Queue: 3 jobs
Job 1
Amino acid sequence: MPQQTDPAYATRLSSVPEYSVGSKVRVAGRILSYDSSNVTILLVDGRIGIRINVSLCLADDSHAWLSSKLAQVMIIGHLEQPDVSNMPPRTAKNGLFDVTIVQSVVMNAILVNPVPELDIGLWNASLDEMERVYQ
């Protein structure tokens, strides 16, 4: 019988710091920037951002979501301790307002899926409702 993998917990970017290091999570947002020297993206949702290592997810067709401005993606990955010697600034600009970058964890992506049709507001609202029901 094939081995079953651990489930990824669907969550909002703003809830990522509540999960412990090693947790497998699924998040959605827009790519604000890509740092080719560290192979990381900054994924944002509103005023919250998280650094995500995408080195395991780069392929010939990755240019579609890497080069598109504010490409909308869904990502599954594991949370890890950040390398303090390589920490980015605590804020970044997203148009007219600042984005607060989560400093407590970074995400190591195992799957990046472009989802241009996803309504992130509805995604967040459904996760809010799930949290309300299950708590």
Note: Residues 100 and 123 are 20 Å apart (CA to CA).
Job 2
Amino acid sequence: GSGFCGGTLISDQWVVSAAHCMQGPVDHVTVGDYDKLRAEPGEQQIQVQKVLVHPHFHAFTFDSDVALLRLARPVLRGPTAAPACLPDPHLSKYLLRRGSYGKVTGWGATRHLGRSSRFLRRVTLPVVSFEDCRASTEQVITDNMFCAGYLDASVDACRGDSGGPFVVNYRGTWFLTGVVSWGEGCAAEGKFGVYTRLGNFLNWITSTVSK
């Protein structure tokens, strides 16, 4: 593919994304963008200093599909560039209970096998129970994953959205609870999108970022 992936700022100098996005070289990130074809005020392109893929990432099953990118310099905060909030593990679990709704943003393809979007789009999706998630696919669903989406598959994340955020609103604050990981087709009937359950990796994230 074009090697385009999403990511989420979690501090002034760290971005969280999907490990499977890191198979090729990753040299920079763009922060505060909306329209890919036009430079906007507040848009920043920053070199990546180092990439840390989770040590348990499994390239076949996409288990532990999470990576951290350290930026060469801090982001200048502004209306379009601010770090997302990480919940504690307990809140993270609560926010991903069945029937809770999250938002996914990205520039991914707007239809299966289609071209990626010029504008940043966002979609609201319900979290699906672990049982329904497992029943919907032949692939392995581990405890480090969760599913979200609709069975009639009207909307979904797609190619190019990988690594991007799944955020849930709790008392007026958006918390980062998932990372777009994989799916079978896009908005395919009977299939859900699969996300990395970020709550399982909070210890790794906080210890890495604080080094």
Note: The first strand starts at residue 8 and ends at 9.
Job 3
Amino acid sequence: MKKSQKGMAVVIALLLVALAASASALMLWQQHLWWRQVEEEQTRAQVREVTRAGITWAVAVLQYNRMTSPVVYPGQLWAQPMPETEAQGVKVSGTLTDMQGRFNLNALGTREGVQDPLRVAQFRRLLAQLHLPLSLSNALMNHMQLRVGDASQEGGPPALSANWLERLDMLRWVTGFTPEVIARLEPYVTVLPQSVNRINVNTAPVPLLKALMPDVDPGMLEAQSRQRVVNYFVNVADFINRVKPDAERDRVKDWASTDSGWFRLESRVKQGRIVLATRAMVKVDPSEGGARVIWRQDGVGALPRQETHDNNP
């Protein structure tokens, strides 16, 4: 065999060895990648299962609270946030928030689609409390297509033209409701069915209470609010007797409550590099079998999986 042929044979042999080594390395890499994907999917499944268990626990806590007390206040078990806790490599944290301690924007109108003067005035005072333009109120009325009329004439058919809100982030479609404005409002407002028009005075934040009761001394409201964890209001009459409203005394019964039926759950589950943030709305109603999840969001910016509450009672 000529030297050139021998040299070529050596080159080909080396090339074949290199190709075999590359193929083996590629196979090992693909196998490693596959195992990582399997492990990651298993971790995701575990995180989802822990999240599901957390929601079940929250529902059970709210059911227990309803069975043991006719009043909802901040000193109860549901109101205690769960700090980040680790067990077997899984970190879990969560909070429950009473959404009836906030102003329901859908309650600005009656079921007939007429503006409710009492609640419109309350919302405008809340805007003033937060140093936001009062023009936002008119912009929202126009967006929701709530007409001016006699709100006392109830009993008609539900409004078909009213543009009820389904989620708080729908405010971004309303003129003037910038992300900054929505963030400013968020701790004080919520979006619930139109018929949910009472606010729990045991859980409402002080700025909202000031907007709801302009004739009451702000210092009195702040002092009473600080005591609600232990010395809570047992009913609306107790609330009226302790804060002593003047001009608004008769109207308090039209909007105040010491009970709640809507709660928001926020949870975060982390295992390794996998994180699942979840938000869910829980409705508590003994006539419907206790407590149940109305909608659930998984992940930042996710849309609700289901939306079952009806704004037309």
Note: Strands lie at 82-87, 90-98, 103-104, 189-190, 199-200, 256-257, 262-271, 274-285, 290-298.
